[in-house]
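Whether sequence alone determines local backbone shape is best considered at the level of individual chains. Part of our work consisted of pairing the sequence of a single chain with a tokenised description of its backbone. This step matters because it turns folding into a mapping between discrete strings. For completeness, the protein is quoted in full, as a sequence line and a line of structure tokens:

_____
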Amino acid sequence: MLIYFGADHRGFRLKELLKEFIHNQGYEVLDLGASRYDEKDDYPDFAAIVARKISVGSELGRGILICGSGVGVDIVANKFKNVRCAFALSTDQIYSARHDDDANVLALAADYTSDEDAKKIAEIFLATKFGREEKYQRRLSKISDIENA
């Protein structure tokens, strides 16, 4: 599975750490920026690039976005059709987002998430399968209806 990464300057260090960690777990990794630390960059730029990739090919991979609060990249990513971005601070939270809501992008808060917690959250995000129960599929269909309205 291909994992797209994106982060602004506040998420840059954690992105670099997670890229290596995820790659070592056997996943293919594609860094869509920032390619270097730049305190003047803006999270919407990187979140949009990753979300656009997921939007047009959501079955091909997943995204991991990181900014200081995690909320900014989450907001941007969820503007794109077929993207279900989940902001997560715990493994239980991301498990539910994957299992129940088929989240395909993870948003992390570099300022509020330890390196070890971020690794655990990312692991659960990548390992958890969508539950596929009728109620979950029905809810995703309603989301698609909203996107297509």
